[in-house]
Design a protein that fits this description.
single chain; alpha+beta; globular
């Protein structure tokens, strides 16, 4: 019944015109390869702290705040990156959907998911 799942997805996305998940995507070229950093749009400019850990998306906004992108664009960028840094439900889910990381690798700081992936050549 995979065709039913595809039909439902089409109806929900195309017919009801659900909002597109927007994330900031910054692709950084380095001599070692591409770094992809993505963050859910609504998190930029905020700071989250839990114990000794913090996600300072105000101070570090420049690291994430590249192009405002769709989920599809973020997934494409993740495939070619050797280092990946993701913050937020949508950004992290993009990596999980692509099989780039497993759910148990996701860390949460004040309830906000954060994922770092390093590919070793």
């Amino acid at each position: 019944m995979p065709h039913i799942k595809v039909m439902v997805k089409y109806i929900l996305k195309e017919k009801l015109k659900l909002p597109v998940k927007k994330m900031y995507l910054n692709e950084i070229a380095t001599p070692e390869g591409k770094i992809a950093a993505a963050c859910d749009k609504e998190l930029i400019g905020r700071k989250f702290t839990e114990g000794k850990y913090s996600l300072d998306l105000e101070k570090n906004a420049g690291f994430y705040k590249g192009k405002l992108s769709t989920e599809k664009e973020v997934k494409k960028a993740l495939k070619g990156a050797f280092t990946i840094n993701l913050t937020g439900e949508n950004a992290v889910q993009a990596a999980l959907d692509e099989g780039i990381a497993e759910k148990n690798a996701v860390k949460r700081i004040a309830g906000i998911p954060h994922l770092q992936v390093y590919r070793i050549k």
